[in-house]
Amino acid sequence: MYSSEEYKEIEKKIFAGERLSREDGIKLFACKDIAWLGNMADYVRQQKCGDIVYYNVNCHVNLTNICTSKCKFCAFGRDKDDKGAYAMDVEDALALVRDASKDPNLAGLHVVSGLHSDWSFEDYLQRLQALHDEFPNLYLKGFTGVEITHFAKISGLSVEQVLRKLQQAGLQAIAGGGAEILSDRVRNELCPNKATAAQWLEVSRTAHKLGIKTNASMLYGHIETLEERVDHLLTLRDLQDETGGIQTFICFPFLPKHTELGKTVQQTSMWDDLRTIAISRLMLDNITNIKAYWVMLTVPVAQIALGFGANDIDGTIHKETILHDAGASSPTALSEDNIIKIIREAGRIPAACDCNFNILRTFAD
Ligand code: SF4
Fold first, then answer.
1. Gap between the Cα atoms of 222 and 7, Å rounded
2. Is the Cβ atom of 93 under 6 angstroms away from ligand 1?
3. Would 335 be classed as within a structural domain?
4. Is 109 in the pocket of ligand 1 (CB under 6 A)?
5. d(Cα 241, Cα 313) in Å, to the nearest integer?
6. Mean of the pLDDT values across residues 11-39?
7. What is the tally of structural domains in the chain?
């Protein structure tokens, strides 16, 4: 265990199940002993979650990459006239899912899209409703706090009214993206045209009030300070104390390729990725699930992250596009057999689940 006195104090707190402070979080980011950090996070993961690792057999549906927001870290969003810009009509979206549903184990959809310059809220709603009508047994997770804020703005409805309509159309959980770093300084610099930190949090708070579970993320490794990473985690921890509605936390390392920001910012190291996942597990004592998103981390790093506090490895995806536009080197999909193998090799028990962590089947031996 750790030799320095200041880390011994933190270690004692972890073993006693005591909450870590902001100062502890900042110290953890300065910690040079990655093995110790991993051990601490793995200890907490074992206490909270046991040996189950969750995954989804799912299909990502990105309805359009046309987006008005122009976030500096994004390689997916396009103007309407740009090469590669697309917008799915109802039939396109259905065709994608019909193809994915050739897999008899397909359990659900993850629907996330750009903020299209011409679409109304009804356009998004119509596509969601059509997917739900044709595939009523597939769970529907989708739309980030950024999209839902946008829908409220373009429709003149309140966030609550938007969420109720999405819920009526079949939505069962809110996607975790768009949180980036919940700091006005960072957002004003990187993504001033979309939901503010307060608006993103308000969507989650309102969803929780309506009984809709949400997910939360952190995009790190760009212009944020380590203190801002800690503050982001504490903001989510406070919200979770208040509502209890966040199911998973996902760390997204910034992928620089083909982005404006990538001209000046380099990609994070594996060391930083593992450290950030471990510290997230330690600081977020009230969020049960910590996800190692294999698309951004790469499969080998996501597998190692299962020993650094993660208990969720995301899903099969069918065909990922958003992050591959930013140069993700991982495959665009994984087979279920492959995911099961990755989890088993890490010594854990694979469990297929729906978007609300109800277990569909496990593979204990
Ligand atoms: S991150 Fe989302 S909101 Fe920002 S430009 Fe990309 S698609 Fe649009």
1. 27
2. no
3. yes
4. no
5. 25
6. 97
7. 1
* Distance from residue 73's CA to the centre of ligand 1 (Å): 8
State the residue for tokens 């790469």. Answer: 298
Q: Average pLDDT of 255-272?
A: 95
* Ligand 1 atom index nearest CA of 114: 7
Each residue's pLDDT tens digit, 93-106: 999 999 999 999 99
Q: Is 142 in the pocket of ligand 1 (CB under 6 A)?
A: no
* DSSP track, 52-75: EEEEE-EEEE--B-B-S---TT-S
Quick one: which atom of ligand 1 is closest to the CA of 67?
Answer: 8
C-beta of residue 114 within 8 angstroms of C-beta of residue 76 = yes
Determine whether the shortest distance from the Cβ of 114 to ligand 1 is under 6 A.
yes
pTM of the model: 0.96
Q: How far is the CA of 194 from the centre of ligand 1 (A)?
A: 8
Question: Residue 91 pLDDT > 90, yes or no?
Answer: yes
User: In Å, how far are 19, 51, 230, 244, 349 from 43, measured between CA atoms?
Assistant: 15, 11, 20, 23, 17
Q: What is the CATH number of the domain that holds 196?
A: 3.20.20.70
Q: Supply the residue whose CA is at minimum distance from atom 1 of ligand 1.
A: 74
The pLDDT of residue 328: 81
Question: Is there an atom of ligand 1 within 6 Å of 72 CB?
Answer: no
Q: Is residue 185 part of a domain?
A: yes
In a domain, 72, yes or no: yes
Mean pLDDT of 50-76: 97
pLDDT digits (tens, 9 = 90+) for 199-222: 999 999 999 999 999 999 999 999
Lowest mean pLDDT among 18-22, 270-274, 320-324: 320-324
